[in-house]
């Protein structure tokens, strides 16, 4: 009993705050960013967002899809991060909207490690994982989905090393830009790494850029102008849940046409809105979803008739299954739903990329 107590005390001392060195995450490798921004952990630079709708400006300051890559041989990883505000969302866990999500690249694939739990307050300090072996490992730390980050530090043992990966497991030269609604941003994943762009990022090794704007992806031309400036190998437009059928009729053609004319060699994947499960019972919701998909289909067929190439289409019935078990509230996805939509979207992206090379 005495020996066990001594060992436990020794372990606690070895992991005390005094034995930890912190590094600014900004000095490590960042993925999931469209472009450089004035505030490092936001998604769109404030200057570039100035003509965008007010709601998009605010959501662009959130860190959805941004992740930090690093290597360390530390037996413990801690994190300190500051949030601009406390958040409450009825359909998301605190760890998804404001916490951190850690993965390790092991045996050729990304594997979940643990989370940085969020507690009340804006200043967070947490042990993410401890008692690991001391081999060098590559990690990826996802930032919050529905909050911002003003500061982030990663802590390791003082006698350990931490640096940018020598051979990053995410290829930032291969970029897939996803513009969309709350589903793209990550509602209602259990944690940040379960948003479907993040799932595809780990599965493919490509850098997926999450430009999901909850309730606010309404195909304004200002967003098309911005997207056309973001380097990409493929654009995925999963934005049909947010605009009304009338807005789709009015905006989708000029939006897609502009993006194609500015980037004619880059494939564009159009994704219908997921079928809202509550639309099976609420007839108005069901009718709206049906009309949304009808209108984007009309735009797609019009563009194809005009000879627009590199345009791909994914129907709603292929996205989340038909067992009605993929949402948390009839609208937003569970982890099961995100896994299914990732599995549906990837073959279309893969086809688009393959035909682009021909």
From TrEMBL:
Superkingdom, taxonomy of origin: Bacteria
UniProt xrefs under InterPro entries: Ester_Hydrolysis_Enzymes, GxDLY, SGNH_hydro, SGNH_hydro_sf
Keywords, in A-Z order: Hydrolase
GO molecular function: hydrolase activity
Pfam families: GxDLY (PF14607), Lipase_GDSL_3 (PF14606)
Domain SGNH hydrolase-type esterase: 174-350
Keyword Hydrolase (UniProt): yes
Cell inner membrane is among the record's keywords: no
Residues in SGNH hydrolase-type esterase N-terminal domain copies: 20-162
Protein name: SGNH/GDSL hydrolase family protein
UniProt source species: Niastella soli
Top-level taxonomy: Bacteria, Pseudomonadati, Bacteroidota, Chitinophagia, Chitinophagales
């Amino acid at each position: 009993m005495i020996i066990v107590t001594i060992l436990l005390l020794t372990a606690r001392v070895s992991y005390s705050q005094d034995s930890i060195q912190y590094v600014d995450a900004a000095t490590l490798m960042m993925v999931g960013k469209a472009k450089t921004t004035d505030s490092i952990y936001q998604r769109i630079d404030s200057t570039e967002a100035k003509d965008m709708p007010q709601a998009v400006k605010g959501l662009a300051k959130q860190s959805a899809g941004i992740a930090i890559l690093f290597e360390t041989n530390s037996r413990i990883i801690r994190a300190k991060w500051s949030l601009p505000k406390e958040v409450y969302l009825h359909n998301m866990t605190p760890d998804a909207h404001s916490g951190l999500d850690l993965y390790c690249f092991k045996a050729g694939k990304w594997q979940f490690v643990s989370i940085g739990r969020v507690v009340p307050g804006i200043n967070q300090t947490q042990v993410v994982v401890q008692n690991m072996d001391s081999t060098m490992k590559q990690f990826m730390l996802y930032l919050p989905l529905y909050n911002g980050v003003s500061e982030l530090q990663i802590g390791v043992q003082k006698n350990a090393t931490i640096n940018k990966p020598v051979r990053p497991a995410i290829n930032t030269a291969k970029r897939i830009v996803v513009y969309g609604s709350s589903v793209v941003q990550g509602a209602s994943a259990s944690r940040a790494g379960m948003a479907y762009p993040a799932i595809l990022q780990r599965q493919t090794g490509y850098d997926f850029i999450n430009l999901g704007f909850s309730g606010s992806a309404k195909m304004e031309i200002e967003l098309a102008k911005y997207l056309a400036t973001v380097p990409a190998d493929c654009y995925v437009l999963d934005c049909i849940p947010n605009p009304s059928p009338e807005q789709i009729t009015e905006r989708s053609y000029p939006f897609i046409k502009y993006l194609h004319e500015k980037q004619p060699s880059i494939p564009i994947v159009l994704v219908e809105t997921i079928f809202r499960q509550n639309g099976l019972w609420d007839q108005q919701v069901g009718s709206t979803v049906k009309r949304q998909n009808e209108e984007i289909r009309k735009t797609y067929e019009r563009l194809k008739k005009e000879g627009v190439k590199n345009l791909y289409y994914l129907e709603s019935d292929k996205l989340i299954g038909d067992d009605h078990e993929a949402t948390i509230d009839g609208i937003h996805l569970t982890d099961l739903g995100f896994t299914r939509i990732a599995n549906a979207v990837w073959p279309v992206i893969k086809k688009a990329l393959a035909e682009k090379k021909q």
